[in-house]
Write a structure and sequence with these properties.
By secondary structure, this protein is an alpha+beta fold. The protein folds into three domains: 150 residues, FAD/NAD(P)-binding domain (3-Layer(bba) Sandwich), CATH 3.50.50; 53 residues, no CATH class; 132 residues, D-Amino Acid Oxidase, Chain A, domain 2. It contains ten helices and 20 strands. The two termini are 23 Å apart.
C-alpha cells in the first residue's frame, strides 16, 4: 500500500471539492477526493437552479446565514478570478395575496439582519418595473442575488486541486473501513482498491448518513430524498422573465416554492417542486430503489413527518404528475404564461436530513468523531457558500486533527 494520505474526502460534489481545495490552501497536506461517479458534480451540484443566493431566507446567526453571507462574496470573486460566466442580476420575491404580507415583512427583516442592506421594498408598480409581466401586490428586490453554472465551478475546483498536487479519484465507490495499515490510522475500502489515510471527511451528500454508518458512527438522522422537477419556457416566451422571480415561501419547509430563474446559458427555468423521491438518486418516477424505500419505511422520523404534512406531500405529488397543476402555481406569478409555453426540463434531488422525531434539519450540520468529520446536512445555499463551508471545515480539521 502506498504512503497514506493526510486526508481523504469522500464525495466530489461542490462541498467536498471546496473542502479539499481549502484544506490544501491552509497546510502542506496530501489530499485525495474519492467519488463514486465518473465525473465531478453529478448529483446535487449539477442539478440545481444555478443561483448565487443572497442569504435572505436564513435564520440570523445560523450556519446557513453566516456561510451564505461570506460565501456569496467568495463565489463572486472566484468566478471573476477564473473567468467563470456569472452575473449579479438580482431577484424579486413576490406576494400575490394579502395574507402573504406578514411573511414578506419577516423576509425583509431577516435579510437586513443578515447584512442585505440594499433590499428594496416594492409595491405593485415597482414589481412591474423590474419584471413587467409579473402579478403581485408587493415584493422585495434583492440585488445581491446572482446566477452561475455550479458544475463549471466544481470542475474548476477539481482542476485547482489537481494542479496543487492532490488527487481526485473518480469511479471509486466507498465501501467501508478496513483494518489498520502501517503508518495510517484508517484504510478506506473502495471499488478501486484500498486507500490509506490519517483522517477522513465525509461529504457524501445523498449518501452521507450511510457513509457515516459505514465509518462506525450513528448520525442520529436519515437522509430523505426530495426530487425537484423543472420546466423550461419555450424560446418564444423567454421574454416573460427578465431575471429571477420567487414567491413568498412557506416558512414551515426549507423549500422556496416554484419560481423562475434565468440561467447563464440564456434559458428560463421554472421550478422546482419538492416531491418525495423513490430512490436516493431518483431523478424520475421511474427510478425506484427497494432498498431506499425499505430504509425510509423503517424510519420513524419519516412517519412522524408524513403524519404532519401528508396533505402538502400529496399536493406536491399531484403537481409532479400534472403539468396543469404545475402551470397553475407558475401562473400565479405570471398570468400571461400559458400551459403550452412550458416543457419538461429535468430534475434534481435534494438530500434533506430528517431527525428521528420527524423534524427537518434546517441548518448545516457537521459532526466530529475520532479522526473524522461528517457533513450530514448541507442544503441550499451550500453551493453558494461552498468556499466558506470549505474554510469552516478546514478550520475544524486543523483543530481536531492537530495539523
Amino acid at each position: 500500500m502506498n504512503t497514506p494520505f493526510d486526508i481523504a474526502v469522500i464525495g466530489a460534489g461542490i462541498v467536498g471539492l471546496a473542502t479539499a481545495l481549502k484544506l490544501g490552501e491552509r497546510k502542506r497536506l496530501s489530499i485525495v477526493v474519492i467519488e463514486t461517479e465518473n465525473e465531478v458534480a453529478q448529483h446535487q451540484t449539477g442539478h440545481n437552479s444555478g443561483v448565487i443566493h443572497s442569504g435572505l431566507y436564513y435564520k440570523p446567526g445560523s450556519h446557513r446565514a453566516r456561510n451564505c453571507a461570506l460565501g456569496r462574496g467568495m463565489m463572486y470573486r472566484f468566478c471573476e478570478d477564473h473567468g467563470i460566466p456569472h452575473e449579479r442580476c438580482g431577484k424579486i420575491v413576490v406576494a400575490t395575496r394579502d395574507d402573504e404580507l406578514p411573511a414578506l415583512a419577516e423576509l425583509e427583516r431577516r435579510g437586513r439582519d443578515n447584512g442585505l442592506t440594499k433590499i428594496v421594498r416594492l409595491d405593485a408598480v415597482g414589481l412591474r418595473e423590474h419584471e413587467p409581466h409579473v402579478a403581485g401586490i408587493a415584493g422585495l428586490f434583492v440585488p445581491e442575488t446572482g446566477i452561475v453554472d455550479y458544475k463549471s465551478v466544481a470542475q474548476k475546483y477539481a482542476e485547482l486541486i489537481r494542479l496543487a498536487g492532490h488527487e481526485v479519484r473518480l469511479g471509486q465507490r466507498f465501501l467501508g473501513l478496513g483494518g489498520p495499515a502501517a503508518g495510517a490510522d484508517l484504510v478506506l475500502e473502495t471499488t478501486g482498491g484500498p486507500v490509506a489515510c490519517r483522517h477522513l471527511i465525509n461529504c457524501g451528500g445523498l449518501q452521507s448518513d450511510r457513509v457515516a454508518r459505514l465509518c462506525g458512527h450513528d448520525p442520529g438522522l436519515q437522509i430523505v430524498p426530495f426530487r425537484g422537477e423543472y420546466y423550461q419556457l419555450l424560446p418564444a416566451k423567454q421574454g416573460l422573465v427578465k431575471n429571477l422571480i420567487y414567491p413568498v415561501p412557506d416558512s414551515r419547509f426549507p423549500f422556496l416554492g416554484v419560481h423562475f430563474t434565468r440561467t447563464v446559458h440564456g434559458q428560463i427555468e421554472a421550478g422546482p417542486n419538492a416531491v418525495l423521491a423513490l430512490a436516493r438518486e431518483g431523478y424520475s418516477w421511474g427510478k425506484i430503489s427497494p432498498r431506499d424505500l425499505w430504509q425510509l419505511a423503517r424510519y420513524r422520523g419519516f412517519w412522524s413527518m408524513a403524519g404532519k404534512f401528508w396533505r402538502t406531500g400529496l399536493g406536491e405529488m399531484h403537481r409532479s404528475l400534472s403539468k396543469a397543476a404545475f402551470h397553475i402555481a407558475l401562473s400565479r406569478l405570471i398570468p400571461e404564461l400559458k400551459i403550452g409555453d412550458i416543457r419538461p426540463f429535468g430534475a434534481g434531488v435534494r438530500a434533506q436530513a430528517l431527525e428521528r422525531d420527524g423534524q427537518l434539519v434546517d441548518d448545516f450540520r457537521f459532526v466530529q468523531t475520532d479522526r473524522m468529520i461528517h457533513v450530514l446536512n448541507a442544503p441550499s445555499p451550500a453551493a453558494t457558500a461552498s468556499l466558506a463551508i470549505g474554510e469552516s471545515i478546514a478550520a475544524l480539521a486543523e483543530v481536531q486533527f492537530r495539523f
